[in-house]
Amino acid sequence: MMKSTALHDIHIELGAKMTEFAGFHMPLWYKGIIEEHRAVRESVGVFDVSHMGDLLIVGAEATDFLSYILPTDFHKVPPMKATYTAFINHRGILIDDTIVTKINDERYLIVPNAATTELIYNWIYSLGGGYNIKVKNLSSEYSCLAIQGRNAEKLLQRLVKDDLSKLGFFNAILAEAKGLKIEDNEISGNKLFISRTGYTGEDGFEVIVPNNNAKHLWELIMRVGKDFGIEPCGLGARDTLRMEKGFLLSGQDFHPYHEPRTPLEAGISWIVDWEHEFIGKDILIEMKKEKKYELFRGILMKERGVPRSGYKIYHEDEEVGYLTSGTLSPTLNIGIGLGYIKRPYIKVGTEVYVDIRGRKVKGEIRKPRLVK
After folding, report:
1. 77/109 Cα distance (integer angstroms)
2. Which of 4, 16, 166, 177 could be joined to 27 by an S-S link, Cβ 3.0–4.6 Å?
3. What is the Cβ-side half-sphere exposure of residue 158, based on CA atoms within 13 angstroms?
């Protein structure tokens, strides 16, 4: 049986085209993927991302523990800072990417992807022996709304008393709400948990509240958002938006079994702090020295054709890689793709061909971020 978020009935009332995603019944689109995509790029959109997990790590040794099981050294991270990082196994392979917010030295909020929440909870729990910590899976108790776009701050500012202009990128705040009484909760007390984060490549915020507050918050966002032409957005636009910006999709661009990749291969080596000990470090150091691994790259099509996951990439007659994601870019109005390329061909500007249903279509290697 599929799970549903606290906003499920609202999505149905809005006439959303629903789909199954990571075990949840989620909106794919409302008016249409392109219209929702453009709303985010040009003004503002709102997403229900309550299918994402919410794990709380508390205890005197929380910082030591997370610094060992993640490639990030959280001793160096200030309170209320959100950090993009990833769980890797002892072979250096990515299990899931995630955002970890350090509330304080003894309290962390981890937001894993929907399909991997139980896996990550069990992984953390299995490694926690000997550390003075507690691991709490609060995923079913909370909702998260992502307000994304250049007008996101103006919109959300009308709903909170705190000055959001002072909230830096990838920082978080416990904000006092206007016109909404927040149910007292374990993550943020009686306030809104707001982080300046997102998965669209635009300015934006992700707001976490107890499920009982979710519908009221959605209604307030939509009411205030009318002044900015807000659109409710589904998973379709979320996918095209993240692809244009070269963001990884857990389970598709990497997977511990079906697409085993390290942070180096996946193009996120910048998340690794090499000065501390963490799981999988030795293997990553050797890879870094040898530099023989394939690399995650973007493909910009030069001819008509829509690349898709699994399509092979050629340089002249040699197969040099394959795509893990692909779509028609609503911003560029051309085909784009993301995938893994053999190291001799990773240079930006390298001419390649994508095999699209038996037809080799010309493209060009780019960095993963295809829309600046």
Report:
1. 13
2. 16
3. 15
- Number of structural domains (the chain) is 3
- How many C-beta atoms lie closer than 10 Å to residue 123's C-beta? 17
Can you list the pairs that 259-263 forms with residues at least 24 positions away whose Cβ atoms lie under 8 Å? 259/324, 260/91, 260/93, 260/94, 261/93, 261/94, 261/296, 261/340, 262/88, 262/92, 262/93, 262/94, 262/287, 262/293, 263/71, 263/86, 263/88, 263/92, 263/94
Decide: 254 and 279 in contact? Cβ < 8 Å.
no
Q: What is the CA radius of gyration of the chain?
A: 21
pLDDT at 1 over 90: no
User: Do the domain assignments include residue 271?
Assistant: no
Q: What is the pLDDT of residue 282?
A: 98
Whether residues 160 and 46 share a domain: the answer is yes
70 and 129 assigned to the same domain: yes
Give the per-residue pLDDT at 182: 98
Which of 13-37 are b and which e, b meaning 16 or more Cβ less than 10 Å from the residue's Cβ? eeebebeebbebbbbbbbbebbebb
Residue 10: CB atoms within 10 Å: 18
> In terms of domains, do 59 and 49 share one?
no
pLDDT per residue as tens digits for the range 13-43: 999 999 999 999 999 999 999 999 999 999 9
Domain encompassing residue 71: 55-137
Q: What does pTM read for this prediction? A: 0.97
